[in-house]
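To close the section, here is one more complete example, presented without commentary so you can practise reading it yourself. The ligand is TXE.
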Amino acid sequence: MAQTLQDFENLVNGKRIAARGGQWLDSYDPYRGEPWARIPRCAQSDVDDAVAAARAAFRSGPWPAMTPTERGKLLVRLAGLIERDAERLGRLETQDNGKLIAEMGAQTRYMAEWYRYFGGLADKIEGRVLPMDKPSRFTFTRHEPLGVVAMITAWNSPLLLLSWKLAAALAAGNTAVIKPSEHASVSTLEFVSLFEEAGFPPGVVNTVTGLGPDVGAALASHPDVAKVAFTGGDMTGQKIYEAGAPSLKRVSLELGGKSANIIFADANLDAAVMGAVSGIFAASGQTCIAGSRLLVHRSVHDEVVERLTEVARTAKMGNPAEPGTQVGPVTTQPQRAHILKMIEAGKADGARCVMGGGTPKDPAFAQGWFVEPTIFTGVSNDMRVARIEVFGPVLSIIAFDDDAEAIRIANDSPYGLASGLWTRDIGRAINASRAMESGTVWVNTYRAVSFMAPFGGYKRSGIGRESGQESIYEFLQTKTVWFETEESTSNPFIIR
Ligand code: TXE
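Output:
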């Protein structure tokens, strides 16, 4: 079996390499439920090699000698190469994580904009000359890169989530060691070839593949890693935070959510229903921003449920590589088991399953890792299905009676990644958007992201922001430089 699989190697210091120990991991095609590729199963010594390469590239050679303008030009050149190869990279993602080609192709095309945007920003990071309370002092600040940044990413949108980190980190002058998810590493291993073609020096971007608790943990605790930028589950994020503590690493964590999508009585219901569908059934619910709790005003509740099930029922399940497919498989077997367990928890806790509720009966889907789009009504916010991140196509509908109750339920969650508000009343939208305990609030839209718009979580949904101008400071540190302009000697025993 193994001979028929395609092998993909890591990139370290500009060279393609397998794991030192010669071990491999199979990568699965979720639509067929069988392995299609192999990636190196790395260990601590491979992590040491990748970090050493990134550290050397940060300290000496062409990269630290480049001006920010030169770094920016490389990033812009890379953006052009991404656009050229977007379709190929999108197809690899679909094969590896089972998400729709329509979605992965759109993501791989769009991610070019992050490199263009941060490429343009690279030479606009300015320090300040301080007005100074001490007239003989000339004092200024400059923003400097941190060093080696480890990027640990998830399987749901491998290249887009990586780009949110990598474009800003490189624009700031850092070097990178990337650890993609063991469930979907292939697109990252292919993508990094473009850096050499764009003209980046070897060692600036390196990869190391393998299991989270081995390779991820080794990176997160490595003494020569200055910062870890992570996307994944909140429990893993917590481990990464702890692993970085002894060496006082900076961390940014993009974690999960249990986002509330609120439909008020005055909403445009056509738009709201489509927003609810896109919030939970797009990507089979495998998105951190899934609007997995749909809060609906009691006066429109039944109508919304009826319209929603009508749309969701017609969603075309099938091969994610075909452009017309709307619901594909979920990415991993453990993920499918977790989703099915959460569906059972919903039923056991007394929610009413009005659609789906298991695996599809059609034998055409027997081999792949499919779960039916599932809708629960009668959910109360203390049920497990309303509290735990399902990361699958499972919607929990909760009825509410007034705005205060909707806001209270929305905020009664350990998470705070995003929320949606559907209303035509501008005052209500402004007040509710202010009250939401979430890093993003969408009003009359859902699941919108942009390279210009800061993104990140409140509460257990994370630390730090990605995208937007301010996010580059997550990859910089400030140095203050003091000059004395007069040749006076002051009393050395008091603070100057
Ligand atoms: O994520 P993990 P998984 C959520 C979602 C899902 C759950 C588990 O709820 O059900 O997380 O998914 C690496 N030290 N999200 O198992 O485990 C791992 O190898 C260092 C939310 O895929 O968090 C991978 O590269 N690294 C989400 C990355 O961490 C470790 C996207 C993410 O894996 C590690 C995906 C360790 N001890 C899942 N253990 C989102 N926010 O979009 C694992 N890793």
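Once you have examined the tokens, check your reading against these statements. The radius of gyration is 24 Å. The chain is about 35% helix and 20% strand.
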